[in-house]
Amino acid sequence: MNKNKLLSGFLVMSLAFGSLAIGSASALTPVGTSMIARVTGATPSGETMPNPNHTNTNYDVGGTDLGIVWDKGGGQYFVAFGDTNNAAGNWTRSNVLAISSDTNLADGLSFSTMIQDTPGHAKEILSSQKVNNVEMTVIPTAGVTVGSRHYIHYMSVNHWGDPGRWYTNYSGIAYSDDNGQTWTKSSTARWNNNTTTWDNKFQMAAFLKDSGFVYMYATPNGRFGDVYLARVPENGMLNIGDYRYWDGNGWNANQASASPVAIGVAGEMSVAYNTYFKRYLMTYLNEDRQAIVIRDAPTPIGPWSGEKILVPGNFTGLGQYNAFMHPLSNSGPDLYFIMSTWYPDYNTHLMKATLTADMLGDNIISDPSFETQTATPVMAPWYVTGEGGIDRNLGFARTGQDNGYVRNGSGWNAIKQRIAVQPNTNYTLKGWIRTSANNTEGYFGARLVNDGPVIGETKFGNLPGYTELTVPFNSGNNSVVELYAGLWANGDTWLQVDDVSVTKGNNLVGHAGFESQPTSGLTSPWYANGNAGVDRNLGFAHTGANNAFARYDSGWNAIKQEVFVEPNANYTLTAWVKTSANNNDGYFGARLLNGGPILNETKFLSLPNYTQLTVTFNSGNNHSVEIYAGMWATGDTWIQADDFSLTKN
């Protein structure tokens, strides 16, 4: 073991050899990443790849980046680019836009045209002042089409900072009603940045159109933030008040409540839904890992898998970034995406990888077995306290080639990793650890970030062989936690760790027992129809201190929650319910959102004592459903409900 290596987290997932229960939905790993063709710029001397667009001569685009692709309808695709140089290499435009009808990406991505202001000159579609520390540039970050109207999310850059860092005035939505020829920046659909702390969460975005909503995944300015989520009905794109922000359990009108759905370091993001695998995909540049990575998830809110490397940092040697997925990839295993390179060839390229189902299930740990550490010059996403590092191909690993370790003569030494979690939710942490003979005070667990309070851990002493440790924990009111394996050294003391995993509990209902509801009024993720709320510490609960209720003398009164599901899957919903003696028209079940068509329900009459009700249903083609318990009141009628559960069969 090399004493001078550093490592920072060690959540281990046992692959084919471990006892870890694999998630029911297969996760994905990219293989065979290759460069297919040049998208923009001139063909350099000696390059043999196809260059179908020759943008330097056809549109005076000698260099540009990004390449955000979205379906504009009618069998065509928009492709939006960022800061653009002319054929002579001078920066002349903040952005340009292409149109493509190409459906065969195997030999490259051809443009039908670019939006032009004069023949042969690609037009700047979103103006910028081009004044440093005022508005240096305006750059597209996402695009989507709803009906015949096209939308671009853009950022107004105040100034550039150190590599990977820039600072924005605001982000906003622009729209076009004339097939992309002219664009109008909405004066109201904007997310203003704090120009002192530069920390607004919604400055760069990725759009995903899904089930009547546009989901907006977002990061702060630059490449070093976490990933947040908002959504808006398709017809409300320009109404800032219609956006709702994911707070970890439900949708909140206050954007300050937004909690991470995935841990950064994240920049230039793309999100899509792949119907072939029935998984959501997220790509971005992780600057710390110096790699373009991909995550996947069964639902738009997650849980997002750990990062897998899509394009390693040394792939081109040109400083590559972004992986904007082409919509033609959304129905099969072949993933086509546009990647940018920085220097000396500032341009974009069409890439291809093949997605394969892996055995990582729903493990939300990145690099759980430390195998990608051989390909990265830094230890991200792992970090270390004290002394630690990676044993690279030294024969100490439990599986594969590599493992993490800590080793020192004194003090606290640990490897650790931050993960995004759903608040008040159960998780299971597992990992395989072995130690030196003199270890007496090792700890494996989860806590708040920055070595904060412990929320679950197990102590271990001497472990002469790799031993699987398991720590169940509840996330409490937290959306980010830190996982760790460490020891208090007393003389030369060490531990090795491998195959770490964290998986979310099976119950998909948030605040299932109402213990985390802060007031007597229902709060996210629960909502009311009619008159409903929470009995807090009144002695009415089935378990714990709190339960929900609905009570009134007329009409429909219910509690409800939107729960994200996988399409065409079978689920079982249960809850404990009791009622007033006069209840004769109660219903418990699942339906589409906003009181939509019922998927299945059971009717209940008077239930003088808590009685467990059960409903099974198939989700159909839906990504989320509404669960409910309610009654039609006739006179003073009430129900009480507690301990909900929704699990995939």
Task: Tell me about this structure.
The protein has about 650 residues and is mainly β. β17 and β18 form a beta hairpin. The chain is globular.
Task: For this entry, give a set of tags.
649 residues, mainly beta, globular, 41 strands, 1 helix
Structural class: mainly beta
Counting DSSP H or I runs of 4 or more residues, the number of helices is 1
Uncertain spans: 1-25
**Beta-strand percent range:** over 45%
Helical fraction: under 10%
Query: How widely separated are the two ends?
Result: 45 Å
What general outline do the C-alpha atoms trace? globular
User: Largest beta sheet, briefly?
Assistant: 9 strands, antiparallel
Mean pLDDT: 94
| Radius of gyration using CA atoms only | 26 Å
Secondary structure: number of strands: 41
Brief write-up:
With 649 residues, the chain is mostly beta strands.
Helix-strand blueprint:
Layout: E1 28-38, H1 55-58, E2 66-73, E3 76-81, E4 84-85, E5 91-93, E6 96-100, E7 113-114, E8 116-118, E9 121-122, E10 137-146, E11 149-160, E12 166-176, E13 184-192, E14 204-210, E15 213-219, E16 225-233, E17 244-246, E18 251-252, E19 262-274, E20 279-286, E21 291-297, E22 308-311, E23 321-325, E24 334-341, E25 347-357, E26 383-385, E27 388-392, E28 402-420, E29 426-435, E30 442-447, E31 454-460, E32 467-474, E33 480-504, E34 527-529, E35 532-536, E36 546-564, E37 570-579, E38 586-591, E39 598-604, E40 611-618, E41 624-648
Antiparallel strand pairs: 1-25, 2-3, 3-6, 4-5, 6-7, 8-9, 10-11, 11-12, 12-13, 14-15, 15-16, 16-17, 16-19, 17-18, 19-20, 20-21, 21-22, 23-24, 24-25, 26-28, 27-28, 28-33, 29-32, 29-33, 30-31, 30-33, 34-36, 35-36, 36-41, 37-40, 37-41, 38-39, 38-41
